[in-house]
Amino acid sequence: MQPTSRTEVTRAQPEQLQTDWTFPAIYFATASSLQSLPSFRHVSREKLSQAAMDMTIVALGIRTGYLFDAFAIRDKRRSLKEVLVECLNSLRKGIPQFAAIVLLHEAAFEQLFFVNVHRLHQRHTEVARNVPTSTGAAGPVPLVTFIQLGSSNTEIYPPPPQLLPLFADILSQLDREAVLPLEVSLSVDTQDMGTMVAFAACVLDFPVAYDPTYSGPFLAGVPLDVYECTLELDDPRSAGLPEKHVMLKFSCPHSVAESTAELHAEAVIRTLKARFEGGLAESGYPGRMVVRHSMETLDRVAL
Length: 303
Description:
- By secondary structure, this protein is α+β, with helices and mostly antiparallel strands.
- The chain has eight helices and eleven strands.
């Protein structure tokens, strides 16, 4: 893995950032930057607004990362990765909170993540708590639970063996750079889908991370606990932000949740509120996060 693009913006620590950049201010500046890019001219304002919200959430450190999947581009001269690198470079120059954001590019499965480097360090520490010690004992109750999806069984399992090395490789590359690169390319074996799926779940701050050991379909006909975290404005008429925004959505097999205390619905909801509500309040978001829990059974689950 090699850093491939650089900018002259220096690394910033959270305490160095200006205090007048509230959630609405960063959102409006981000949305304006996205709208100004020629490659995004065909994209609807609604989709640009969705992307700006998710990027603002990551820039403020409320969430570790965002998988860019809001829309595709029609620009045949440049790739989406090239356009997003240009976008991030522009955002870094205008909004100090983006100084700690990098674009992670995973080529095997063509995934692009905007990631907060400070939060990525924290997630690495949290994942390490899941790994049993030399005596066989695990650490405290984990903030992310790994569920291995086998062809005939679904059960809680330690993290995939290559997950921690992947985290460590990314962070060591970033930490040794005097200037934080704009983009970092990840090298993941196409046969090791489990590591990439689990890594994506960690970066997206899911309390549950799947580790598939076969090619699917996954969780077909399996009852699932489904959680959705939505940001909702207190007064939709005053802020100019989207009235509602789905920040996070994930699932957990109900059979696993039933036998695991930290995956009971009330425990998961507490975890989500503890993880996100403080950051939202500090950021100046003029609303609240609503967590909805439902039961669903699907033909298959996209990982």
